[in-house]
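Tutorial handout. Part one gives the primary structure; part two gives the three-dimensional structure as tokens.
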Amino acid sequence: MCYVLLLSTTSSEDLVVHNNDFVRFSKELPQITEVTALKYPHRWYIGSKSVCSCSFRHLYSIELGFGEPVEWYKEESEDIAATLQLIQIIRELVTKGQSVDCIDAWEHQEMYPVAKDELEVNLSLIKNSEFRFFENHHFTFSSAT
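Part two.
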């Protein structure tokens, strides 16, 4: 089973220009139900060093909220680096006035619940180093102060 990160935006920018060893944008979307829940016209699949979306910071539950990596919860340094790069790209899009949403889902949806829990993320309230994805959540980003 693999994580799937989907992103949509009002920006027509070609996000492939940001591709590197840790973050890979593709217009080829997986065949999962969550694709239909994306809000904006420009849609992207976000892969990672593991090709799927597994190599980003993910938590099963939102109960711990956003937070810096901690010693007692082991996270790979490359997953942290990938998440930092991705949230910076999202932050730049939002700062330019673009709308952005993202869904963290499972590839084999028939085995897991469809991502339906919505989460408004005000980027002016969290640092990049605190950001992580929560399984089965639909994120909408803003930077309202």
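Part three, for discussion. The longest helix spans residues 77-95. Residues 3-142 form one domain.
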